[in-house]
Predict the structure.
Amino acid sequence: MIILEFQNRIVAEALRSRVATASSGGKVKDVDITVADFDGIIYHVGNPNPEDKTLVTVSIKFDYWHQLAEHDVDGFIKNLYGDLVTDTEDGYNSTLLVNLASIPGDTEAFIGKIASFKRNCLAALYKKYFDLQASGGAGMDGSPSLIRYRPEETMFISAHRDRVTVVFSTKFSDEDDITIGKLFLQEFQEARKENQSAPQVLFKHKSPPSELSKFSEALTGDNVGYVTFVLFPRHIDAKNAENTIDLIHGFRTYLHYHLKCLKAYLHMRMRAQATSFLKVLNRAKPENETKQKKTFAGKSFVRK
C-alpha cells in the first residue's frame, strides 16, 4: 500500500524553484501561496518584505494549537529550527523565515525540513511521551492526554513503564466505510502474525477502549471506530523514533485515503462488469422476425 508523504509538496516545490533561481543569480519571483493540508492545517508562504524576494516566510495554522501548546510545541519548534523561527504572522500559530540566498548545509534536506513543518509540530507531542517512557520518570500514571485533531475525532496518547499507547478515534461517513474500515483494520492485526516486530494494533467498534471511558470526548455510535497502537521501547528508541513519528502522525489520513481508493476501485470493477453484461445481452437479442422476405417467383411477404 502507498505510504503518503508527510512533507507538504506544494511548500517544498515553492521553495525549491526559488532556491534554484536564487543560487543561479536569477530574479526570484514573489510568492503568496495559501495551502490547505490534511486535518484542517493551513500553510501560508509569502514575502514579508516586498523589496527583498529572497526572504520567504512559511507560516502554519492548527485549529488545535492550544492543545499542542500544553506540550510545549513552541519550545520544541524553537529548538528544532533555531534562528529560522521568527515573529508569528497574524492569524497563524508559528512562522519560519527562510533566506533563499543563504541555505545552510544540504539544500534538499533543508527544504524537506521546512516542508515537514506540520509533522514536526506534531512530533513535539510524540517526543514528549517517548522521552517520558524512556526515562521511567515519575508522573507516568498512564493517564491519556487528549488531542481533538478534527471536530468529531480525537487522539489519546499515554506513556506507561513498558509502552506508549496511541488511540485514534475516527468517524466513518457511511455504512460502507464502517464495513470496509473494519476489514482494513483487521488486516493490521493479522499483519503482526507475520512481523512480530510490528506494533500491536487493536480495533474497537462503536465504543471506546475501557481506559477512555471516563472521557466525555470519547464518542460512541455505530459509525465510530477506535484504533489503538501499542508502541514498545523498540519502536520509540533513538534509532526508530523518527520513523515511528513519520508513520503514526498521519495514520488517520492514511486510513481514509485507502478507504476511498478501495471504493473507487470497486466502483470501477462494477462498471466494467456491468458493461460486459450489457454486451452479452446485446448479443443475445433475437433477429427481427418482421423482416421482409421474397418467394421464388419474386413476390414479397412478411412472416408474421
